[in-house]
Amino acid sequence: MTRTRKTGSTDSMAGRKAISPTPQASDPFDLFETLRAYVGFRKQDSALLASFYRHVKPQMDTIIDDFYARIRANPQAARAITGGPAQVERLKNTLRDWLVRVLRGPHDAEFAQLQSRIGHRHVAVGLQQSYMVAGISVIREHLDRILLKAGPRTAHRSAEIQRAYLRLLDIALALMLETYREDSLKKILLAEQNATSRRLAALGEVAASIAHEIRNPLAGISGAIQVLGQEGNAHGSRRDILDEILREVNRLDGRVNDLLLYARPSTPNREPVRPRELLRSTVRALAGEPRLEKVRVNIRSPGDLPPFPLDPAQIQQVLVNLVLNAAQAMNGTGAIDLLARGLDGGSLEIAVEDSGPGVPPELVHEIFRPFFTTRRDGTGLGLAISRKIVEAHGGSLDVEARRGGGARFFFVLPPHPGEGPDPQE
Q1: Cis ω for the linkage preceding 106 (within 30 of 0)
Q2: Residue 294 CB contacts under 8 Å (≥ 6 apart), including other chains
Q3: Whole-number Cα distances in Å, 227 to 235, 241, 244, 366
């Protein structure tokens, strides 16, 4: 293994294809602009609705009272209202503001965000999306009634006005439903993750108990083998057999240690560490590793990065695991880059990049799952343990495709304990 010292920050993220197991939220205004072009909602339509508002304004109380009377008459919809009359009055004011914005505009990014927030809120209170569709239908019904009675000065434009509010209400509904879909999917995924975490926690406790029961006999076997190996008649094939038994005992002991580490990870003991020195110490720890004999390991990190609070032993364990995984993915030949760079807000990003085949898309959701492995001799705990260590530091461990081929495993650590990623984001 050779070490090449290079300075400079990591490459730009541009051109890399990020791989994420969570659904990516669409931008409400981008979707609004797409839908507006699709249905043909124009600036003159906004002007028509603004002129129609003077006919709707005197009927606002009628529209709003009917809207919530229908909700209260439906037992399933009424369950979303838990705050009594005071909440109903607040909701009525919210509906009034929304309807004014629909008719008077402006129909801009803030308007798109407003529709998106309605979708978020309906998921939060557990109201089915069908009631959003029904609610928009009630608004259409009232606007049709008002337009019909608007008088002769509006009659010659009634078709254009109706087309304008029908199109805009369809756009608003589509934005609400899209946000509802995304939030519902996130809730399902979160529920599945929580259920999986509970099952794995129980399995981890069982595994830890079994591991403790196995560890003592393994230590006894190892000691006995070493004593036998020291006897004068331990030579030739007998010596080879004893050495093989000892290797297997040590391998099993390593598996037991992995189980214990995953089941009961230790709390990080943070201290100020220079990121570049952390990468160097990782390379030194891997010196003499047979799997890296034909692998070139490069360090790419600015020398002036300030000390960062982390547990050096734990983070080095993560890096060693990622480097060895990379070497195995490259079949023991190629190049691995260890990178560190500072981010806005004082966070630190550390990455391990390899020149191997990359992670198959169908395995991206699986590789961090405990006990999942594609290797015959693997335990499937290395990446799971690494992710736990990073999360204990308030960060997250992820993978993406490396520009030019290969995989890029990276994690971002916040500068202060407890500043992990927001689970709502």
Answers
A1: yes
A2: 332, 333
A3: 13, 14, 15, 43
d(CA 138, CA 13): 47
Rounded to 5 degrees, φ, ψ at 167 are -65, -45
Q: How far is CA 358 from the centre of its chain?
A: 20
pTM exceeding the 0.70 threshold for the entire prediction: no
Amino acid 122 reads H
CA separation for the pair 289, 320 (Å, rounded)? 11
Query: Is 314:288 a contact under the CB 8 Å cutoff?
Result: no
If 0-12 CB within 10 Å is exposed, 13-18 middle and 19+ buried, where does residue 281 land?
A: middle
Share of the chain above pLDDT 90, in %: 44
Per-residue pLDDT tens digits for 95-126? 999 999 999 999 999 999 999 999 888 887 77
Output 363 or 231, whichever has higher pLDDT.
Answer: 363
The answer to whether 32 touches 171, Cβ cutoff 8 Å, is: yes
Q: What separation in angstroms does the CA of 73 have from each of 77, 78, 140?
A: 8, 7, 19
- Determine contact, residues 230/189, Cβ cutoff 8 Å: no
The three-point CA angle 265-268-269 to 5° equals 135
